[in-house]
Design goal:
Rossmann fold, 22% strand, elongated
Length: 729
């Protein structure tokens, strides 16, 4: 026999185990703990006790008859084979003893209400006489009991009359009110028929009476007659909306015999789902995935994909959509689309730039002068004389390969010079120098004339809209001719002031020092005309002039400060590189604590080698700087992949024939050198042999470079850089 514990039965009945134990003990079942087990006999004993205490009768006697009938059916399938299927039919009938008739029930009720004659009092043995006080107490108790009985009977009569009055009022209201066209029908009970009282004190479901079955069948007949007044939608499949007032008649809602109608479950909860679709304001960024767009509209991603398929585009849940397409999809689905602000971290920088700068002190700054010209025309020698130092002998072959940045203190003021290389391969570095400069000094050798790099320097200066001062160098040579230089430059629309133009021509000699002071005066005069100003306080901004990896110091960058004051310990952001300035040196290699506008410095402490030409700025939050740098790295990776895909499509037709490919890996000491080498080597590609630069970078040749070369069968070229010990092996 299956036995249950006291606590299990208490959970089923919704009682506390302590209360159930009390009832069991009152019923004569000796159970002390909640973990004690109960048998069916104990449960029956408890049920009898509860029936007796609650004044209910025993369960009606019933007879159940079960009949089984087995038959066989032969069925053939698609192949023609026949199978025998056994079918078993079970019939079950329950016979229940009928209740008393209505007359008998009314009679028993009247008997209960009328007081029955008192039974004859049996003769008792003589009792000793009571005191007067005891007699008075007993009489008072008898009076109280009589009053209580009279009050209870009066309340019962008033309750019955109240019920009858409310039923008759409801009937009158239902007759007077017009019939509403609703999906549910209400059945009003007649005033004459008494409502069946619910059975109390039973643990099991009461047996259905035959009269109840008959009443149910009559109700069904009445409902079928009133189906004409129902709404057509209620019996059919619900429309696909965001909800229904009934709360349970949406699409895919099954209707079976056990499901309650809305009228039956009216008091379940007060919440009602909106019948109309909810319209959202969707903020659409520059790019958004299909899944994210669906989440913003609070719909499933399949709905968005379906809408895009209707528009003629096949997409996946993770595919990125541009802003215009996303806005069309949002409007197509009935929502309001709005342009969202850039959710990229770079929006933080644009907000910071828009801050008012009226509170910052703005003062004059030194001009940034770029010295440009053809190779070996004496640019570095001219600067060498100005700086009283000899730099040209230290360069490879006497030719400048790096942008040298120096600031010079003169009697008339400070000037910052940028020395750009004049060799043909260093076009990008010259363009970079022209972008950051205020004045261009074009050096032309008097004995050599205008050369290709001279013309290129003129074009760079015109593109940057920068004033040009022409310095005719090597005037100490006997074959020098300044008139020839003037005539050649006029053809390039560089007209001297003597001939009615706006360009100053100054004859100088870097060897003897002729005209150097005049050149400096001309530069400072031009700077006064330009009225150069910058904020000396606040967050600093600048430009990366050159960058390299220094052995022992790591990534080192040469920075020209444009505004503000750059201090040691500032958090710096340069493109996709960030870091904190750990050390700072001037052009002479001496450590400095801060640098103002137009002063070039070398800094150490960046995470990687920054790209030359990147704008640098200081931030107060290191976490924000890291976030922006990582975001830019991801963007750069996407652009690089897009370019790679474009080159693959471009080279489809080239790959038809057998083209030999020379794979190269270039490592240089500074970025400008490997840029120049990359451009020069790519120009060597022909129809038969194509040069493919697999990797180019700054620093020593490492083990990873050698591994890459072995895997891709490439040649490693080191320009002024050495291989480490592991790479040599």
């Amino acid at each position: 026999m299956a036995q249950t514990k006291v606590e299990q039965l208490a959970n089923e009945l919704g009682l506390l185990p302590a209360a159930l134990l009390k009832q069991l003990q009152a019923a004569g079942v000796s159970k002390q703990l909640a973990k004690d087990s109960l048998t069916e006999k104990d449960k029956a004993q408890l049920l009898d006790y509860l029936r007796k205490t609650h004044g209910t009768k025993d369960e009606k006697s019933k007879i159940t008859l079960t009949r089984r009938q087995t038959t066989e059916i032969r069925k053939s399938d698609s192949t023609g084979k026949s199978h025998t299927i056994q079918v078993e039919v079970r019939k079950k009938r329950v016979f229940v003893k009928r209740d008393m008739s209505e007359s008998e029930t009314s009679k028993s009720d009247s008997d209960k209400l009328t007081p029955s004659p008192a039974p004859p009092v049996p003769k008792l043995p003589p009792v000793p006489s009571l005191d007067d006080t005891q007699k008075a107490l007993r009489q008072e108790e008898a009076k109280k009991q009589a009053e209580l009985i009279a009050r209870q009977t009066a309340e019962a009569k008033e309750k019955k009359q109240r019920k009858k009055k409310s039923v008759t009022a409801e009937v009158k209201e239902s007759e007077s009110a017009p019939i509403a066209l609703t999906g549910t029908t209400t059945i009003v009970a007649e005033a004459g028929t008494p409502q069946p009282s619910p059975t109390e004190g039973t643990l099991h479901k009461p047996v259905v009476k035959p009269e109840d079955k008959a009443a149910k069948s009559e109700k069904k007949k009445k409902q079928t007659k009133q189906v004409i007044w129902k709404d057509d939608i209620s019996g059919k499949r619900g429309h696909k909306t965001r909800g229904d007032l009934s709360g349970g008649r949406g699409w895919r809602t099954r209707r079976d015999k056990h499901t309650k109608t809305p009228s039956e479950d009216q008091g379940a909860h007060a919440f009602s789902v909106p019948t109309e679709p909810v319209v959202h304001e969707v903020m659409v960024p520059e790019t958004i995935s299909v899944g994210s767009l669906a989440q913003k509209m609070t719909v499933k991603a399949a709905e968005v994909i379906k809408t895009l398929m209707k528009m003629g585009s096949m997409v996946t849940i993770n595919q990125m959509l541009d802003q215009e397409t996303a806005m069309i999809v949002v409007e197509e689905m009935g929502h309001i689309a709005k342009y969202a602000a850039l959710d990229s971290p770079e929006a933080f920088l644009s907000d910071a730039e828009e801050l008012p700068t009226t509170e910052l002190k703005i003062g004059p700054r030194a001009p940034v002068v770029t010295v440009m010209g053809h190779v070996d025309h004496g640019k570095t020698s001219l600067l060498d004389y100005i700086r009283r130092a000899r730099v040209a002998s230290g360069e490879t072959g006497g030719i400048t390969q790096h942008i040298g940045a120096y600031h010079v203190e003169t009697e008339r003021g400070m000037i910052t010079f940028l020395d750009t290389p004049g060799h043909e391969a260093f076009t990008a570095m010259r363009a970079r120098g022209a972008k950051v400069t205020d004045i261009v000094v074009l050096v032309v050798a008097a004995d050599d004339g205008v050369m290709p790099q001279t013309l290129e320097a003129i074009h760079h200066a015109k593109d940057a809209k920068v004033p040009v001062i022409v310095a005719i160098n090597k005037m100490d040579k006997p074959e020098a001719s300044s008139e020839r230089i003037r005539q050649e430059l006029i053809t390039q629309e560089v007209v001297p002031e003597d001939w009615g133009g706006d360009t100053m021509f100054i004859e100088v000699s870097a060897k003897t020092g002729q005209g150097i002071n005049t050149l400096l005066e001309s530069i400072l005069l031009q700077a006064e005309v330009l009225e150069l100003e910058a904020a000396k306080e606040g967050p600093s901004k600048g430009i990366v002039i050159e960058s390299r990896i220094d052995r022992g110091r790591g990534p080192v960058a040469t920075i020209l400060v444009r505004s503000g004051t750059l201090k040691k310990g500032d958090i710096l952001l340069a493109g996709a590189v960030f870091g904190r300035i750990r050390a700072m040196w001037n052009e002479n290699g001496k450590p400095v604590e801060e640098a103002g506008p137009s002063i070039p410095v070398e800094i150490q402490g960046l995470s990687e080698v920054p790209v030359a030409g990147e704008v640098i700025m200081t931030l107060t939050d290191e976490r924000k700087a890291r976030e922006i740098a990582l975001f830019r790295q991801g963007k750069f990776r996407d652009v690089k992949l897009a370019k790679l895909q474009a080159t693959k499509l471009k080279n489809v037709f080239e790959q038809k024939g057998e083209i030999k490919v020379l794979a190269l890996i270039i490592k240089a000491d500074v970025q400008g050198s490997y840029e120049a080498l990359t451009h020069a080597l790519e120009k060597l590609s022909t129809d038969e042999v194509r040069v493919n630069i697999i990797h180019s970078g700054v620093g020593a040749i490492t083990e990873s470079d050698i591994n890459l070369a072995l895997a891709s069968k490439a040649v490693v070229i080191g320009f002024n850089s050495r291989a480490d010990a592991i790479a040599r092996k």
